[in-house]
Each structure stands twice: as C-alpha cells, then as structure tokens.
Amino acid sequence: MVHKSNRPTVHDMRAMKARGQKISMLYVTAPEEAAAADAAGIHMLSIESRFFSPEMRAAAGNCFVQVGLPFGPYGGLATAEDYLRAAFKFTAMGGDCFYCAAALDIQKALCDNHMPVVAHVGLIPSYITFTGWRAVGKTATEARAVWDHVKRLEAIGCFGAELEVVPDRLGEMISRNTPMIMLGMGAGPGADAQYLFAEDVLGCTDGHKPRHAKTYRNFAAEYARLQGERISAFREFIADVNSGAYPQPQHNVAMDDAEFNAFKADLGL
Predict the structure, then answer these.
(1) What is the rounded CA–CA span in Å between residue 67 and residue 2?
(2) Mean pLDDT, rounded, for 127-151
(3) Which stretch of 119-133, 154-168, 225-239 has the lowest confidence by average pLDDT?
(4) What is the per-residue burial (b if ≥16 Cβ within 10 Å, else e) of 112-130?
(5) Strand partners for 181
(6) Given the DSSP bridges, would you call strands 193-197 and 181-185 parallel, antiparallel or unpaired?
C-alpha cells in the first residue's frame, strides 16, 4: 500500500507558481530552525548536504526541502556520477530537490535521471571570481546573458533556479517567462519565491548583511546575553568549589556507618 505524504511535491510547487501563489523559502542549518520553519508554515527550505540528515528531514516536517550538492572544490563532487550518487543518497533521506551549480552537462545528467534540479543564475557565489560581489544584469548585455542562461537550464529540464541579486524588472520578466520555479534572492517581488537565510531573518550575526536581507529578531543580542549568563554560572561554580559550598550533602552518595566501619576494619585502619 502506498501511503500519501502531506509533504509537497514538485507537482505541488509548480501548481503554486501556476496560480501565482508566492513561495516563502529559508536557508537553515539546524534542526531547531527547520522545525520552527515548519511550525511557522514556510513552504521551502534550503539545507546544505553537510547539514542534511534524517533528523533534519524529520524536523523540516511538511516543508519542501532543497538539498545543496556542494560544487567541486567546496564539497568533493566532481563528475556527473559523483553528483548522481549524492542525489540518490539524499533522495533516500528525504530530499525533495537538489541545488546544483556545476556545469550544464552535470545538471543535465541529474535531470535525465529524474532528479529535480535547482540551478543558479545571476550572481553565483561559486563563480564569484568572474563577476565580483555585485548585482548582475544591470546592462542590456548582462540581462540577456542571464536570460539565455535560464533558457539553457529550461532546455535540459531543470525544475528551478536560484535567481540572485538581479534587477527587479529582470527578475519579474524571467519569472513570468519560464516554467521553472525562480527562487529570488534580491531579485525583486516578481520572483516566484522569496528566499532569505535564517541567520539574517533572526539577526544571528553582526557581520555584513546583504541589501536584500531583512531582520525580524535580534538573536545576536540574545546569544550575547546567554553567553554572559554562561560565564556567570561558571564563575559561581568555581567560587562554590573554592569555598566548599559545592558539593552539598544532597549531591553526595551516602554509605551506611556499619558498612564504612567494616570497610576500614578490612583495611586495618
């Protein structure tokens, strides 16, 4: 008997695009983030393969999970067979689609084996040496290059693509003219999905924050407060050890007087 899951499928995600329903998406790294996303109703999660596990899949609940297959020097995958084996492994673990920024022939090999592939267009971090950290597609020539990249991905059967840091008008035009799910990161409101990192949403870091990021909570301050509490608790423990306040009788294992005396007698003490 086949048991139907409540988790969305590729078909369901495509139906969301077809009816114009916006997709919410987060990059997460920990089970508690995945569980919170599921409880909040986030549609889609991006989880790097180094963080993906049965525990993460269970925590993600009904979220549609994209598993990141790390590009060459970042994760040891080089050939099409490497990528296929990784995709099959993570499919068995519950991955729903697979991020792949490798060459077109490798992406095609995954598509040909019926793996839902999410590619990357616009600003592509793994190719950053060729562009620098900047918006891509602000000129007619660059916009056409991004457009043509999308069409090549369409032709090999990709399910979607991360559309990163492109002008909003370009992001909307591409999203409206491709069957692929376009996962926008700084690509304007016209992208099919709005994709942020959980660490930016939660305010976990004090470092550089992308222009398109939006922070809804200040976890960095909360983490700093908790670290201060840790240090204070450890100092109190040291003080108790030095003063003899710890351990107290309730922390110790008692021994009957008769048994202790018998023990000492056996030692001749």
Answers:
(1) 24
(2) 91
(3) 119-133
(4) eeebbbbbbbbbbeeeeee
(5) 160
(6) parallel
d(CA 208, CA 134): 14
Q: How many CB atoms lie within 10 A of CB 241?
A: 11
The tens digit of pLDDT for each residue in 17-54 reads 999 999 999 999 999 999 999 999 999 999 999 999 99
175, 191 contact by CB (below 8 A): yes
HEC string for 130-172: HCCCCCCCCCHHHHHHHHHHHHHHHHHCCCEEEEECCCHHHHH
Q: Looking up tokens 């976890």, which residue turns up? A: 219
Distances (CA, A) of 98 to 3, 40, 140, 183, 206: 23, 23, 30, 13, 30
Does residue 1 have a pLDDT over 60? Answer: no
The token duo for 1 is 């008997």
pLDDT at 32: 97
